[in-house]
Design goal:
By secondary structure, the chain is of the alpha+beta class. The chain has a domain of 99 residues: Immunoglobulin-like (Sandwich), CATH 2.60.40.10. Helices cover 16% and strands 34% of the residues. The protein is built from 1 helix and 8 strands. A 4-stranded antiparallel beta sheet has the order 1-3-6-5, with no helix packed on it. The chain has a 4-stranded mixed beta sheet with strand order 2-8-7-4, with no helix packed on it.
C-alpha cells in the first residue's frame, strides 16, 4: 500500500513538473498577437504585473548585503561539534564574535541549512570592538547518524556571507 501511494505521489509530481515546463516553453515561443499599451495610457488599476514563474530547482536568492560601509568580523570559532546527542533533543550553542572593523556591524540575516537548525542573531548594530553571539538551537528530530548543518550569516562584511558549521552524531532514542 505504501509503495502505491509513493508511486502515485511521484506520478503527480512528474505530471505537475511536465505541465509547468510545457507551459513555460509555450509562453516563451508563442508569438505576440497584440502590442501592449504604453504604461502612461493605461490607468494604474488596469495595469497587470508580469506573471512570475516558480522553478523548484532554482535555489532561493541569497539575502542582499546591507548597503553602506563594510566592516570586519572575527568569530572565536566557526565550527561546533555537539558530539553524541539523542534524537528529539534540544541542543544549544552560541558562536561568539567581535566586530574587528571600523564601522558598526549590521547582521541582516541568519539562516540555518534546514528547519532543525534555528539561529538567533543580534538585530542592533554592533559597534567596532564590541562582541556579540549568534545563538544556535539544533533539534535533530528523527535524524540519525552523523549530521553536518550550516548557518549562513549575512552582514555588512566582505565577503557578505559567513558560514558557521555544526556537527553531531545523533543516536536513535529508545
Amino acid at each position: 500500500m505504501k509503495e502505491n501511494i509513493q508511486i502515485a505521489l511521484l506520478a503527480v509530481i512528474a505530471a505537475a513538473t511536465l505541465f509547468m515546463a510545457v507551459g513555460q516553453r509555450n509562453q516563451a515561443t508563442a508569438p505576440a498577437t497584440f502590442a501592449p499599451l504604453p504604461a502612461a495610457s493605461a490607468p494604474a488599476s488596469a495595469q497587470v504585473a508580469p506573471k512570475s514563474t516558480f522553478d523548484p530547482l532554482t535555489p532561493p536568492a541569497a539575502a542582499p548585503a546591507p548597503a553602506g560601509p563594510s566592516t570586519k568580523v572575527a568569530f572565536a570559532t566557526a565550527t561546533h561539534d555537539f558530539g553524541k546527542i539523542m534524537q528529539d533533543s534540544e541542543n544549544r550553542y552560541a558562536f561568539k564574535f567581535t566586530n574587528t572593523g571600523n564601522e558598526p556591524l549590521v547582521i541582516t540575516n541568519a539562516v540555518g541549512s534546514c528547519g532543525c537548525t534555528v539561529p538567533d542573531y543580534p538585530k542592533h548594530p554592533i559597534k567596532p570592538g564590541e562582541s556579540g553571539e549568534i545563538k544556535i538551537e539544533y533539534k535533530p528530530g528523527k535524524q540519525e547518524g552523523m549530521q553536518n548543518k550550516t548557518v549562513t550569516i549575512t552582514a555588512n562584511t566582505e565577503p557578505a556571507q559567513t558560514v558557521l558549521n555544526i556537527t553531531a552524531n545523533v543516536q536513535k532514542s529508545m
